[in-house]
Amino acid sequence: MLINHSILRVGLSSALKRSFYSTQAAAVRLVPDLVCPEETEKHVVSKHLVDNFDRHHNYLRISLTERCNLRCTYCMPEEGVPLTPNDQLLNTEEILRLARLFVSQGVTKIRLTGGEPTVRPDIIELVQHLGQLKQHGLQSLAMTSNGIALKRKLPALVEGGLDTLNVSLDTLDPHLFQIMTRRKGFDKVTGAIDEAVRLGMPHVKINTVVMRGINDQEVLNFAAYTKGNPVNVRFIEYMPFDGNKWNRDKLVPYRELMDRIESMYGILTKLGDGTNDTTKHYQVPGYQGKIGFITSMTEHFCGTCNRLRITADGNIKVCLFGNAEVSLRDMMRQGKTDEQLLEIIGAAVKKKKKQHAGMFELASRKNRPMILIGG
Which residues does the UniProt record annotate as the domain Radical SAM core (predicted)? Predict the structure, then answer.
């Protein structure tokens, strides 16, 4: 797959001399348009995005910031995390360059994560620019958010091209919400979900990390929530990351959750799953919404993984649970060409392992806290 250098190349020298926040508005203006090469060709995944197990990676998750306005217990260590200096984070120009480059190689879905992506002052402008990639191969532009600062921004984000929204919400109890997030704001989160539904977003999902003895008793409440709400509630098995004090006793296997729900609502209807889905989809018969289970710990889905991650400080991470990373930020700031970046990306993808380690080995391995990876 060829690269149109006049389209993909962006000037970095002046932007890199300024700090992260001072470059945001200027960096957006530096990019005249977002056109991908080979518009008349069939959109396929290039060799650089295919690993040694023939997994085609057409889904890119970009962390926009390490900052967050919540302190969720499973994501943020109690003592906090040292934040990367602003000038060592990807600036807007660099994010857009990488997004265009990956789309030119066959990426069809981009998800914006954090930290909390809505704390970026330029989030609306960034989404608008990324949304233009839908004219050139990108099929879906998604965001994962905690919802705290989202509601007022949503209309502009949707207009800019955002079509999929995942909102992190682990409880329907305002008091427990404050305990789990170490902050107030329950009504703001539910208000953001309601606004997304009102705007007619085609994909509105709720991500619920289930921990035994903390919020597992609310599974039935979330199932009931789908009766009149056209959203997809996804129960996520508790996963180990640095600083979140994971232990097996807190893990609730998805089959146990299913048993609890079916004991109340009867047999769930199995829905179709896509080839690369991380979620097992179900529905309570007659309900508007759906229920899903993300089974990273008890039934991994490594064999069909199509995801790559870029951290806020510019590292490519080919596996959520892997600790091998390569800095694309450094390569760009050293003046590497797009061909050279693709060789680096391809080499990283080729080193992706067949599957991640078992849960106990993962718990003992060194990895970033979730907030520094990107949810």
Answer: 52-268
